[in-house]
Structures are given as C-alpha cells and as structure tokens.
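re the bet — no i am not wrong, look at it urself. input seq straight from the record:
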Amino acid sequence: MTIDVLPGDLLLEIFDLYRERVTRRPFGESDWPNWGWTTLAHVCRRWRGIVLASPQRLRLRITCSTVTPVETSLDIWPPLPIAIIYPPSRFISHKFKGEEREENIIAALEHRDRISDIRIFDPEGRSLERWLVAMQEPLPALTYLDLGYSSRRSLILPNAFLGGYAPRLRSVSLSGIAFPTFPKFVLGATHIVTLRLGMPSFQYPSISSEVMATCLAALLDLEILSIGSDLSPLSPIQTTSPSLPPLTRAVFPSLTEFHFVGIGEYLEDFVARIDTPLLNQLRIWLSMDFISGTHQLHQFVGRAQSLRPLNHAQVAFSNFTNTIILGSPARFVLDITWDRPDQLLSSVTQMCNDYFSCLSQVDQLNICHFPEDPGMELGGKNEVDPSQWLELLRPFSAVRTLYVCDELEPLVAAALGELTGERTMEVLPALENLCLDELGPSGSARDAVESFIAARQILGRPIVVQRQNQFHLLIRRWVQ
C-alpha cells in the first residue's frame, strides 16, 4: 500500500505528526508557522484538499518575509492567517535587506485582521524601528509576538504599540527591547500564557518589582514567565526591608515555570510579592556578589510546594559558574556566576548552608565538574582545604547515595579521609552508597575512602562502594 491510497483521516494524522516533529526541532520551539505545509499541498490535489480542510489543526499560516512577494502569496492561498517572519528562516543570515525587501513586511502589516504571528529578530534594530511605526494600531488576530534586538542602542516600544489592545495574544517574547508601558498594555492582553521579557538595564527602574507583580497578576492564564537582563541597573533599586510588615502577595494561579536572570535585588523584591501555587519549574541566574542577599528567594522556594519533592540534588562546577539543581527531573535550578575560580567552592558552600534548609530532605546527591577550560582546576591555583568540602556536604544529612565524578574524586576522598572514628558521622550520616567513577586500585584517594568506610563499618553504618562508568551520561540525562 502506498501512502497515496491511505484514508484521508490517517493522512491528516501523519501530516500533523510531521508538523509537530518539524516545529520542535532543532531548537525545541513549538508552533513554528513555516513548517512546510505548502510543499505537501503541492504534491497532488488530494493532499492539497486534506491540508486546506484542516487549517486550525495543522496551524496553517501564510508566511510573509523580506523575500516574500506578499500580494502574490496572498493571491495563491485561501484567506489564512498571516505570519510575519524576519529573517525568513531560522537558518538564513540577515542578508536580505534593502528598502524594497522591507516593503514586503510593511505590505503584510496592512492586513491587520489576518496577522496571527510576528517573529522578528533584527540585531541592529533599524528595520525593526521602521516596522514598529506600522504596528501602532490593533492587530486583533495576533496570538504570537517575538521581537529581538541585540544592539546597545536604546529601542523602546511606542506607547501606542498594537493600539494597546491584543485580545488574542497568548505568547510574548521581547529581547533587548524596553516596554515602559507594559503594565498598561497587559490590561488589553489578559490571555497571555507565555511571557518572556528580556529587558535592557534601563527598563528595571521604569517598571518596579511591585508594579510588575501587580500587573502580571491580571494574567490569570500565565503559565510560563521569564524576566531577565544581562546588565546592571542604571539607578539603585528599592527592595523590601525585612523589618516591614508582610506584603500582600499577588497570586499567579496558573504559573508553572519561572525563569529569572539579572539583578538580585529586583528578584528578591519580586518573589516577596508573589505566590505561585502551581509552580513546578524554577530557574535563577545570579551573580556571586548577591549570595548573601537571598532571604526572600529562600522563603519563596519554601512556599512553592509544587516544586517538591526535592529529594535529588546535583552540585555542578564549571570554570566560572556553579549550578545547584534540585529535583529529578530538575525542578529548581540555581546558577551562580563569579569572576574568580578560587571562590567557587566557598560560594556554593555558603549558599547551601545558609539559605536552603530543604537540602536536609535530599536522599541522592551528585557532585560533578564540567570545565569549559580543561586546563583550569577547581579552586584555581590554590589548594582546596578539605574542610571546605566537608562544609559543602554537611547540610545533606539525609543523603543515602552519593555520586562523585572522576575529576573531583581525589578532593572529596581527601575530605572524607580527614574524619576518623565517631567524627565520620558528622557529615552524610545516612550515607549507604558511594558511587565513584575512576577511583584507582591504589593511592591516597583510595586509602582515604577505605579509611572512612572502615570507620563507618565499626560504627554499624556500612557503606557500599560502586563504580559508575556512565556517570556523565547519567548526570546529563537527569538534568534534562
């Protein structure tokens, strides 16, 4: 049986499965409008009829870009929704420029009632600035908005952007673009499900954490929220004082994912003002300079009961980043960046001991090292004091299984070897399984481990040592 004689409903199922596969590869992005349905429609009249009969299920869009003669495309196909895309492909560079080609986008924007998607990434912003002038009236059918810009010049969305009214908008992504009137705009776009705000530095003072929390509370359907900036604010941010009475927190009833990168003070004040009863994924990027100021973040994690169970933990080191991952699959990810590798271990130790009481619930701990520069050793050129490793392990009082990657085995083994007799119960008192990757048949590391295990055996708390040759593969699968 050839595919051409398959029943129509089965062909439609195949087309839909193909769409899902294409739109989620290679970048994991769903609902990419230019997935090649026009090619299927040109195979034969029967396929064309099946495709055009299911525009909603197959998410049919007429794509318009700088290389698309807009009017010609609109004449060929039925009056389907329009997706404006620049550059014309995720794989094509920004070589399609020029005033004539930019006119294709302007012409597409004239069909306001049919525009469903706008996805523009213009690094310099010059073309985008011109197109924004044509986006100051309502686009009632718009559901997906993605605007990206990477120049250092200020690019600010106008007050009249989209006429301040986008009733069907469900996904918004802004990168490097300021939107000072966003709190007002949200009042006319209350069905947003996914919101990613990559704000430039000057945006932070213009939208305070209090205003941000209040306006986002109006988005009852909001499921995914990302707030970030790579720069420091141009003016100080007023944060919540611990001595003030408890704030009345805004409730985000549908939020399941929250990502933040940027200013620690802003994060602290923001999470102090919100409750997220369904949150099950949290990822935070912070500078090491802010480690001592995460009290509100700690309380926020404690309130987010949907993040649990957090009974698996990973502490991962690279050259200039430390990552703490809780949950399996990962539910809470904290990335800490720093300028000095010699402060790596002390920074994460402080964080673990001072701010996360939930670590006492972890029963499996993985410690690994993924250096970008293989020649750079953990801790820089200075020898790491074994007591620092013991302090890192101390809060994990319920861990029964410990995995250590081969790069860190000598350091962790030396730390455990410092403990003798009853002192071996000071850290990891519940440990039952010690999984090592490349511990050799002899040497100081093995001697230290054997001494530690022998002491535990005498105390009636035996430990089983296992080899884990697939350690790195195991860790990467777990993080994903």
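see?? The radius of gyration is 27 Å. told u. also The chain has a mean pLDDT of 81. so pay up
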